Amino acid sequence: MKKQQWPLKTQADFFELLGQLIANGYALERALMTVQGVLPKQRLALTTIVAGLHQGQPLHQLLAPYVRREIARELAFASVHGRLSQLVMEIGRREHRRLRQSQKLRQLLLYPVVLLVMLAGLMGLFCTYLLPQLQQMGATMPQLSHWGVGVGVSVLTCCVVCWLGGRIWRRRNWLQRLQLLQRVPFIGSLVQLSIGYQMSLQLGLLLTSGIGLATIVKRSATADGPELVRLLGTQAERGLREGQDLRQVIQSMPLLPSECQHLFAKGKSEQAIGEDFQILAQRKFELLERQVQRYLMIIQPVCFAVIGLIVIGLYGIMLLPMYRNMGELMTW
């Protein structure tokens, strides 16, 4: 039986409840069994997860088929820093916020999509019924075939560009892909804030758990870690072999927020730096949420502007020639 990913709301409820139970002293297996009563639809999957824990399998591998890949990568570090309850509660709160944002996006797009469907329906009725009758009356109408050819060429061009972009994307590793996404207009800032939040959160949890920077670098370069983490760890190890200082290597790692330079420059202990990283993670998440809200506020006006341009274009293509023909008929 193929395993399906849980809905976003289920993922958020699961992680928030699991974190609360672990924080209140529940063992991981007992907490998962308790969650079964709250999420009965996931009872079979949770039973499988508990059985896998009995066999010694890590939690992030057992949850990977049911949660987003990003969450599975974050959970992989829980076996290192041991702060599972804090991490899963943070994931639960974050996923609830993300769920609210996606719901708001659907609400904002509902009305423009309905208008576009109605507009397409009117366009279809005009071309199917009204246009042939006007042509039978001798009215001179625009040749829609030319427009069809133009639209077809545009669609073909977009498909070719997407195909070439997909080939280039597949040839890049995850580090190069994320660096490329950070340069894309509009979404680049969102990607940068999201990566900064996740990396700051994980580094904060690791450092405040007493794990040194050298251990973090060594652990990140292991073969069983996620691809992105493995690439970053390998790059850090290369810098150490070249004789660079450990903190300089961490500071020069790509994707880390620029604020990290100030955190390491203070000369604090690694425990204090970890606490600063956790504060930075919360700040990055607040900025990310604020940026998403700003984009959500402009999506609907942009959609209405596009619909308005489409209406004006259809008016110029269809109705103006028809009015011109009516004027010629009136002059006879």
From TrEMBL:
InterPro entries assigned to the protein according to its UniProt record, in alphabetical order: GspF/PilC (IPR003004), T2SS_GspF_dom (IPR018076), T2SS_GspF_sf (IPR042094)
Spans through the membrane: 108-132, 144-166, 295-323
GO cellular component labels: plasma membrane
Alphabetically ordered keywords of this record: Cell membrane, Membrane, Transmembrane, Transmembrane helix
Membrane topology: Multi-pass membrane protein
Main location: membrane
Location of the protein in the cell: Cell membrane
Keyword Metal-binding: no
Source taxon at top rank: Bacteria
Transmembrane helix among keywords: yes
Residue ranges occupied by any Type II secretion system protein GspF domain in the UniProt entry: 14-132, 201-321
PANTHER family per the UniProt record, alphabetical: GENERAL SECRETION PATHWAY PROTEIN, TYPE II SECRETION SYSTEM PROTEIN F-RELATED
Family affiliation: Belongs to the GSP F family.
Record's protein name: EpsF_2 protein
Taxonomic classification: Bacteria, Bacillati, Bacillota, Bacilli, Lactobacillales
Gene designation: epsF_2
